[in-house]
Structure formats: C-alpha cells, structure tokens
Structure to design on (167 residues):
C-alpha cells in the first residue's frame, strides 16, 4: 500500500516574518553548561541563574537579542540551549551557525554510547563550550562506572585533548 500522507511544500508554508514575532514573549532557555550558569543583562542588570546542566529560565526574546550583541559567547559555546518548541529562536537571532553541530541536551549522554570512531567524529564538530561539557560529563560517567570501555575513554581523550583518567 502506498504512503498517502500529504507533504507540504515550502511554497505552501508562509514563513514567519520578524514583524510577526513579539519580542516581549518569554522564551525557555536551558543551561547547556555542565554546572551553574549565570547571565547578567547588560541592558537591565537582571541576573539569571541556572543551577545545573539542563535547568531552565524564562528570558524575554528582546533580552536574548541583546545577549547576542553583548554576550555572544553564550551562543557560541552553546550555553544557551533551546528545546524544539523554541528552535526558531536560533534562526530569528541569526546564531544558527553556532548550533549546527551541537548535541541536544536530551541526547547528550547518547554520545558516550557511540563507537570510538563516532565519538571522535561527533566531538570534532562541537563548539569549545560543548567540548568542555562533554569532558566534564565524561569524567562524571567514568567515576560512576557508566563509562568503562577503555576504547571509548581513549577516543574521548584523543578527541577532547584532555586526560580523563590517571595513568
């Protein structure tokens, strides 16, 4: 039986124009940094604190636009992460090049289940911020025994350029 689902072409879908977007709307921003993350608005002085990796804060879209100008590193290092519902924010802000190869937060630990070759290939494309997060998380998982493959550990060390275990 043939698949009868109707596909929508790009011509049939009206793209969202910048004028249609309310810059006062709140956007859920997740912490892509392995640890406590603090952002202080250059415009208002408001302080946003994420206590741990993956935690959430609501930030006004206007503030994210300002953050892009004043604190671009939060985007370059993938410390500001967005769930699929807010993926459009990346395009709206024009920071897509920083998120092309990033690992989604809910898929982060999947990296450690890949083959050594896949681990190296994936890490080679990550931002410096995500590489640091991978390094930190790898240390946690090695300590807990969740990563015990010598080949995986060597691949991680090679790709990250760090020593994860003492020899």
């Amino acid at each position: 039986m043939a698949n009868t689902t109707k596909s929508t072409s790009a011509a049939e879908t009206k793209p969202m124009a910048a004028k249609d977007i309310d810059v006062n709307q709140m956007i859920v921003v997740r912490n892509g940094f392995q640890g406590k993350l603090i952002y202080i608005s250059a415009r208002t002085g408001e302080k946003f604190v994420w206590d741990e990796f993956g935690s959430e804060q609501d930030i006004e879209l206007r503030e994210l636009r300002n953050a892009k100008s004043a604190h671009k590193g939060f985007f370059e290092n993938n410390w500001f992460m967005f769930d699929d519902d807010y993926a459009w924010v990346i395009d709206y802000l024009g920071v897509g090049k920083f998120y092309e190869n990033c690992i989604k937060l809910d898929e982060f630990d999947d990296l450690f289940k890949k083959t050594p070759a896949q681990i190296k290939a994936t890490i080679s494309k990550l931002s410096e911020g995500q590489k640091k997060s991978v390094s930190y998380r790898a240390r946690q998982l090695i300590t807990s025994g969740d990563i015990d493959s010598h080949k995986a550990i060597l691949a991680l060390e090679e790709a990250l350029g760090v020593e994860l275990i003492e020899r």
